[in-house]
Amino acid sequence: FAVSQNASRFIDDDDIVALDAVVTELSELRRSLHAMHAREAQLLHAGGKIADNVLERSNGAAAMPHRSVAAEFGAVLRVSDRAVQRMMSEAEILVTMFPGVLSSLGAGSISRGHATVILEAGAHIDDDAARRVFEATVLEVAERESASRLRPIAKLLGEKLHPRTLTERHAAAAADRAVRVVDLADGMADLIATLPATIA
Q: How many CA atoms lie within 13 A of 50 on its CB side?
């Protein structure tokens, strides 16, 4: 507990002991929250596997088992089916592609924010060996830095390990350029253009 020389006149040993206890409990609570986020991902993934099994046994005859599972989860979590499906998709990536990240999250060494940054930067890496290198490297940073400080590092490493060059990806993205009109209230509208950054 570091304080300025001026403030130290007002802080006694009891304050330091009390604050130390609060900081310790807060740290333990945060570790528990991270571990619960890891367990939540495992449960969401387990729900997805159940839906996969139903679909496989029915030879495709079952009516949308993934949406049924998402609806069950949505009712419990009080979020929309669509939001749950997104959560299940992220959980699938975390559990199957980034076991080291899941383990660190479960141990409370990183936060869900760290895990999200890592998945966003590395989910496109389809080579298992390259993804393991990416995961190990970014976890070293994640376990000592904030998620916001991790983001540019993870993004840069993810770019280096991307299976397609930036030029190839830019050409594919530029082919999807578009202009959209979104109606608003009171006779207004948004005109939205998606185009190469240099042109924008």
A: 13
Q: What is the pTM of this model?
A: 0.76
List pLDDT tens digits, range 99-135: 999 999 999 999 999 999 999 999 999 999 999 999 9
Q: Count helices and strands (H / E) in the chain.
A: 8, 2
Name, in order, each residue with C-beta under 8 angstroms of 88's C-beta and a sequence gap of 6 or more: 44, 45, 47, 48, 66, 69, 70, 73
Please tell me the distance from the alpha carbon of residue 141 to that of residue 109, in angstroms, as a whole number.
11
Token pair 């949406």 in the structure block, residue:
67
pLDDT for residue 85: 92
Q: What is the token pair recorded at 144?
A: 């000592």
Q: What b/e sequence results for 174-194 when a residue is b if at least 16 CB atoms lie within 10 Å of its CB, and e otherwise?
A: eeeeeeeeeeeeeeeeeeeee
Digit-coded pLDDT (tens) for 166-197:
677 667 777 788 888 889 899 998 888 888 88
Q: Is the pLDDT of residue 8 over 80?
A: no
CA angle 134, 140, 141 (to 5 degrees): 95
Question: 49-70 in b/e burial notation, b at 16+ Cβ within 10 A?
Answer: eebeebeeeeeeeeeebbebbb
Identify the H or E element spanning 52.
helix 13-57
Q: How far apart are CA 162 and CA 173, in angstroms?
A: 15
